[in-house]
Specification:
This protein is an alpha/beta fold. It is built from ten helices and seven strands. The relative contact order is 0.15.
Length: 262
């Protein structure tokens, strides 16, 4: 029962958080001067559209294939006058050539099998010298062991049946680098980054977040009974943290690249 991104009941599942402050500091180091027009492809609930605006973008275009996600994003970003949204997808944005000064594709490419076509489209719509930021998990990122901060690891400890599905949809670093080079992107940096996903007041707040499958598409592959068992397993692992705050982190790989001059 994979997540249905078009279901209106899921429109807030990727809009409930704010961007990690350390992520903002990291990205800011690469932006240089004001980024002009920023395009967030696969914008989900608009979390990173707001971050790009706060980082100085004159205009942010949030694009998603799901109208439900866009409805949630519009609500989330309603106080930002320089953010607009358009329905589209990473393989065929429908935007004119050289629309964007920078492009962000965060947590997107694991939904896409044709990485070449994805990066070819990005290469078309970004300006010469434009910054292209791709962020996702490699198979190695996904299978790090669980801990009180890396809660996602417990999912695969409990349900090894999910490992193959998770890793098969992830692209290796070598695949990403090959496609970037093929479509006129010059790699600036490749970073392993621990990003704070969310802070919880206590395990009860975490319990509710897990049961709601908030922002974790892999949890939609479990039925309700399996999810209950998983939550019990994680809470048992965290039994020593009763009554204490928790900070959940995920490890990502971030590729920073620049579009070569045409």
């Amino acid at each position: 029962m994979s997540i249905n991104f078009h279901d209106e009941k899921n429109k807030h599942t990727y809009a409930a958080r704010t961007a990690d402050s350390e992520w903002i500091k990291l990205i800011n180091r690469y932006l240089g001067s004001k980024p002009g027009t920023a395009l967030d492809i696969g914008c989900g609930g608009g979390i990173y559209c707001k971050a790009l605006s706060d980082l100085g973008a004159d205009h942010v275009i949030g694009m998603d294939f799901s109208e439900s996600n866009l409805n949630g994003a519009r609500e989330n970003c309603r106080s930002y006058g320089n953010i607009s949204f358009v329905q589209g997808n990473a393989l065929d944005t429908g935007l004119p050539d050289e629309t964007a000064d920078m492009i962000l594709e965060r947590a997107l490419i694991h939904h896409i099998r044709d990485l070449d076509k994805c990066f070819q489209e990005a290469s078309r719509v970004i300006k010469s010298g434009g910054l292209f930021i791709v962020q996702d998990r490699t198979p190695e990122d996904c299978l790090l062991p669980g801990s009180e901060s890396h809660l996602r690891g417990y999912i695969f400890e409990k349900y090894s049946k999910l490992i193959s599905k998770e890793t098969e949809r992830r692209h290796s670093s070598s695949e990403v680098l090959k496609s970037l080079s093929a479509y006129q992107f010059e790699l600036i940096d490749e970073i392993s980054f621990w990003e704070t996903r969310r802070s919880y007041q206590d395990v009860q707040e975490l319990n509710l977040d897990l049961l709601n499958r908030t922002g974790r598409s892999i949890l939609h592959d479990l039925d309700d009974d399996e999810l209950q068992d998983l939550v019990g397993y994680i809470l048992e692992k965290l039994s020593s943290k009763q009554g204490e705050p928790l900070i959940e982190q995920d490890r990502w790989t971030i590729w920073i690249a620049k579009r070569r001059n045409r």
